[in-house]
Amino acid sequence: METLLDNRYRVIRTLGGGGFGETFLAEDSQMPSNRRCVVKQLRPIQNNPQIYQLVQERFQREAAILEDLGSYADQIPTLYAYFQSNTQFYVVQEWVEGDTLTDKVRQQGVLSESAVREILINLLPVLEYVHSKRIIHRDIKPDNIILRHRDGKPVLIDFGAVRESMGTVVNSQGNTTSSIVIGTPGYMPSEQAAGRPVYSSDLYSLAMTAIYLLTGKQPQELETDPRSGEIIWHRHALSVSPTLAGVIDRAIAYHPRERFATAREMLEALQLGVVSFPPTVAYQQPQSLPTVPYQQPPVATASPAVNLPNTVAVSPGTAPTPQPITQNNGSKGILLSSLIAGGLIGASVVVGFALTRPNQPVTQSTASSNESTLNSNVTQTVEPSPSETSTNQNTTQNPTPQESSQFPRNLRPFTTPLDSQTSINTEPTTPSQTPVANQPEVNRPSPEEAVQNYYETINQGEYNTAWNLLAPSFQNNRKLHPKGYLSYVDWWGGQVQNVDIEQVTLEQANADTATVNAKLRYFMKNGKQSPSSVRFSLLWDAGNNRWVVSGAR
Ligand SMILES: Nc1ncnc2c1ncn2[C@@H]1O[C@H](COP(=O)(O)OP(=O)(O)OP(=O)(O)O)[C@@H](O)[C@H]1O
Does the UniProt entry include the keyword Ribosomal protein (predicted)? Predict the structure, then answer.
């Protein structure tokens, strides 16, 4: 049967679909040419009349931004229209005939250095323009770049902004809040995953895309140096020139201040062949720290095939609409973003989580209501987990953290610059190598508290916050997290109902590292429970006055 959207757009076929809605190829029945177009349907992740108007306002604002971007940049699809129907929102945009970069690599294998350079050289001015409008794309990846058949030019699709408006939610206190962080694990840098994207986050994603084009490997297939956190990719693209390799390396530096500050700078480095590196402040693990294999959870096996990374929408926060976000200088945008991330720690917020199928966008429920709609068939899991001796004893199911944990609850929460009212950190949360000699000891949480806090965060469904309590080397351990954050969330959000900490004992601690043994009990969503003993390695993150988890086994 023919589907006519808005009494006008005749659907030809579905192009894709995920947690936010579907995307259709359609023709415009009210244009003489029946011009083809892409109709993108967006569903608010919470279908609640209370927030409808807010979503609507944001949607309109963001559509206006897309209109502006698309009208002046040839390599961004033109916005033709936007409308609402029932409780759903639609944008209608130019259909770009071509192949995505993912299609390209699938069809013809890895691209040559000159092809990759050309793509970068053609895209960087587009990014420069987008950034000049104070917009961060937030989801640059091979799937979101189409090589246009007409002229071979790369076109940037799928701006995160509009989807973000769909993330407006009502938290457990009944307050309207927002929002979600848009991005794709592996392609998105850590500051973006923490809710604080900066312009160079897009450069990072673009450089990760270039690595995919040169190596054919998705980020999750690449190893990282467990000490420096650096992504090891050169060995998969040995013939790449030092200039291109240097440009990419600088763009994917862990810390934004080590990257190119602007798209123009990156473009010039590419064209002129000069790559200078600012002084390194790379995250380093102490030499003595063990690397951290731990048992694969018994409930599932990691699929050896690496799926295409999905866009995820995670984390509650305070409306990171495509507002001005200025890099490194305490602008309003950073302030907002910091509040967003701060909100991650404090607030119990509801975000929809729908993992419809592998390779589809995900929205996450950090639901205080425990209403995860995660597809529990997901067969990847990677976190400290019940031991092989998982039993199906008769237990209290779905205990809340308050009801179930035997551990004292009156522990001081973490203090980070983000949840402090006075300190707004303009830099991403970065475990620091700084010795702690001059740090005030007053509010320093104990390692046991850190472990306790980690599980409380998980029990509250704040997976993104919990994820950011892991050291980067641990996050990037692809045996444990083959799909990065998505694997983490698949496990915690999809399988685990609650974790009780039965006992926590400190094995050793010094200024920089600590080892904590924890006896845990996992309550699974399928009703099973099982005990588990985990030995945590912790690193002191002086910059944020907290411990981060660098290993668990
Ligand atoms: N303007 C466009 N022109 C041509 N194809 C498009 C356009 N926008 C999206 N597409 C294609 O439509 C398909 C579905 O798009 P959609 O944005 O829903 O992506 P997705 O991969 O399903 O989800 P996501 O990017 O959110 O993870 C993709 O293959 C994408 O390349």
Answer: no
Question: In this predicted model, what pLDDT tens digit does every residue of 402-442 receive, in sequence order?
Answer: 333 332 222 222 222 223 222 223 233 333 333 333 444 46
Q: List CB contacts of 430: < 8 A, sequence separation 6 or more.
A: 190, 254, 255, 283, 541, 543, 544
Tell me the best of 158, 180, 311, 312 to mutate to test the pocket of ligand 1, counting ligand atoms within 8 Å of each CB and taking the most. 158
Residues 311 and 161 sit within 8 Å (Cβ to Cβ) = no
77 lines ligand 1 (CB under 6 A): yes
Residue 476 and residue 472: Cα distance in Å, rounded? 6
Residues recognised as catalytic: 139
- Determine if residue 40 is labeled as part of a ligand binding site: yes
Q: Which of 150, 157, 209, 308 to mutate to test the pocket of ligand 1 (most atoms within 8 A of CB)?
A: 157
Q: What is the ipTM of this complex?
A: 0.96
Q: Determine if ligand 1 sits within 6 Å of the CB of residue 16.
A: yes
Q: What is the CA angle 10-15-19, rounded to 5?
A: 110
Instruction: Tell me the average pLDDT across 269-284.
Output: 58
> In angstroms, rounded to a whole number, what is the distance separating the alpha carbons of residues 411 and 414?
9
Residue 83 neighbours by CB under 8 Å, 6+ apart = 6, 89, 90, 92
Contact 44, 56 (CB under 8 A): no
How far is it, in rounded angstroms, from Cα 243 to Cα 504? 50
